[in-house]
Amino acid sequence: METTARISTRLLLCLLLIGAVPAVVAMLSAAEVLRLWDLPVAASVLIGGLLLVRQKWGPADGKIPFPLPLSLALLILLVPTLYVHATLPAPVSNDEVSYLRQAEIFADGHLSEPLPAQPLVAFSQRQRQMHEDPQRGVRYSKYPPGTAAALLPGVLVGWPALPVALAGVIDLLLMWRLALRLRLPRPRQAALLLAVSPFFLLVQSSFQSEVFTLPAALAGYLALLHCRDAADARRAALWGGVVGACCGLIFLCRPLTGVVAAVAFGFGMLLQRRPAQDRTVPPPAGLDEAAAAERGSAGVAPRLVAVAAAVLGGGGFLWLALAYNHAQTGAWLDSPYTAYAQAFGPWHNPGAPAAERQPIDVYGQGDILAGLGRQAARWSVSLGGMLGAWLLAYWGLWRQRRADGGAAFLFALLLPLAYAFHWYPGHWAYLGPLYCFESLGLLLLGFLALARDMPPRWSRGLLLAMLSWGVLHYVIRLNEVRDHSELRAAPQLVAAQMENHSVLLLPYLAHPLLHEPTLKNWSPSPHPGMERVAILRELDTPAKTSRLLRELGLDDRSVYRLSPLDQRDDQGLLYEALPLD
Q1: H or E element, residue 144
Q2: pLDDT of 285
Q3: Is residue 131 within 8 Å of 339, Cβ to Cβ?
Q4: pLDDT of residue 469
Q5: Are residues 415 and 301 in the same domain?
Q6: What are phi and psi of 186, to 5 degrees?
């Protein structure tokens, strides 16, 4: 006989259907938000889960019979696919190229790299997401320094993906520890659910900044739970300092996300823990009911001490971020991101007078309603690869708000609201709202917390569908990601086949929106004079291109132009190098 659940099946089904609406609307009205197979695959995972719900099998308590050997086997099966993704010939976004380049600059012991003095040369070398300061004659990434600093150890040892892999392992360990702390059934399941989440797999195989902010968010949330359980000011200060440091780390990589984390976690620290008899969730592991009740009425002193310690813990990272701003832009409050946006634009409304134009590559240029629609549509298909499951996760976080003061729910709610104002929706490659990636782990914990109170068949069926074939979403997306990576890597792949002491020109192509030649996908050589094959942007006239080569001291080299092939050659290349006429 199955155990009695606290949640009706009708409500679960309604939430799943409502959660599917944003994806359906996006496919009908804004097809660019999702990819071709996103909705069908996510719907198939949902249908598969609902079919499993109807089956009478497994233990009466609804727990999935997932022993440790089977869990390890499932993870091992992912290794070949992860290897393919980790060995892509090039990152699939300009952001990642910028992070890696800044890490290389750090590895050389500098904050920036020199910029050629001649304007013509500087323009021919311009790289997307790298700010050029002609007054100081330097170039550096437009992004905060945290991500490049995190990649630095990997760059120093010649394996940039090493910090990324370590961050993924830390994510899984923190998910397991959080599930233990929240007394979720089968804590190992939390780590496994994250490990096979297609959204996690795609982002975790990249060099995006969110790779390093996710573990910081999970660690900060764990510290918050410890902080709320602290009965004395000393322990409250210790864990409060950890919360602040985690928010500071996030701020050093993604400032807006760091602010959202500080607000949400600070709110959770200030709210007093309810006595045990008023709570709908069990006390954390290692804390009995009597101790929980006692700590619930411990007074405001530990909470205020914790918040003060959090401010101190995060203050050092804030100072580092401001000092970096000053070193790069000359002003404490002017970030490289703002400097890049002002120099990159103004392209918004190009027909208007110059005084009325606005740069587009800056926060605050987005339509909030459209932004929220994009975030919701991508969440609709990304959580475990199951259509509509995101609303169940949000509800699960809301139901456990007394355990964390509502911090997780507030964080997962404020993050998409904050980024809905951004003009750019986030890169398509990662099967989810990239700017909300830091809330993925917390939402999965919320889903598992809700699954604890679902009817056993529902808990079993939905979780098994996510764990078993939700990962198909990742496999299908991987092919498209690899094709895009090969396109971006085309100049480097062709250059590898060329003779020494030569030049490869990226063909001039005036982009009607960006007004810059081939800027979107291809990056030139950082230091063309030092490269075996110098990769340069061809200018709009042969005379300008010849002058460019003379200024760089490359006029004695053989010159080729990158040209598309009619079909892939024996080595799988899409382009070839043709001698310049």
Answers
A1: none
A2: 57
A3: yes
A4: 85
A5: yes
A6: 55, 70
Structural element, H or E, at residue 466: helix 456-469
Residue with tokens 């100049």: 491
Nearest Cα to 208, choosing from 353, 98, 124? 98
Domain of residue 376, residue span? 9-89+151-480
Q: Are 374 and 362 in contact (CB under 8 A)?
A: no
Taking the C-alpha atoms of residue 519 and residue 534, their distance in angstroms, rounded to an integer, is 17
| Under 8 Å between Cβ of 172 and 444 | no
Q: What does the block give as tokens for 362? A: 């800056």
What pLDDT does residue 94 have?
92
Positive or negative, the Cα torsion across 447, 449, 455, 458?
positive
Question: Taking the mean position of all CA atoms in its chain, how far away is CA 276?
Answer: 37
> Under DSSP, is residue 420 helix (H, G, I), strand (E, B) or coil?
coil
**Is 114 inside any structural domain?**
no
Strand locations in 486-527, DSSP E? Answer: 502-506
Residue 436 resides in a domain:
yes
Domains held by the chain: number: 2
236-249 tens-digit pLDDT: 999 999 999 999 99
Which structure tokens are listed for 540? 């709009």
pLDDT at 466 exceeding the cut of 60: yes
* Polymer length in residues for the chain: 581
- Rounded-to-integer distance, Cα 296 and Cα 277, Å: 11
What's the pLDDT tens digit per position in 193-214? 999 999 999 999 999 999 999 9
What is 199-218 written as a DSSP string? HHHHHHTS--THHHHHHHHH
pTM: 0.92
Q: 524-562 burial by CB neighbour count: b if 16+ within 10 A, else e? A: bbbebeebebbbbbbbeeeeebebbbeebebeebebbbb
Tell me whether residue 102 is in a domain: no
First CA to last CA across the chain, in angstroms? 82
Look at 358 and 477; give whichever has higher pLDDT: 477
State the pLDDT at residue 345. Answer: 64
Contacts of 240 (CB under 8 A, 6+ apart): 223, 227, 269, 305, 306, 307, 308, 309, 310, 313
Distance CA 440, CA 448 (A): 12
Same domain assignment for residues 472 and 493? no
Q: Tell the burial category of 443 from Cβ atoms under 10 Å away from its Cβ (0-12, 13-18, 19+).
A: buried
Domain boundary among 480, 511, 527: 480
Per DSSP, 523 falls in state -
Check whether residue 443 and residue 311 sit in a common domain: yes
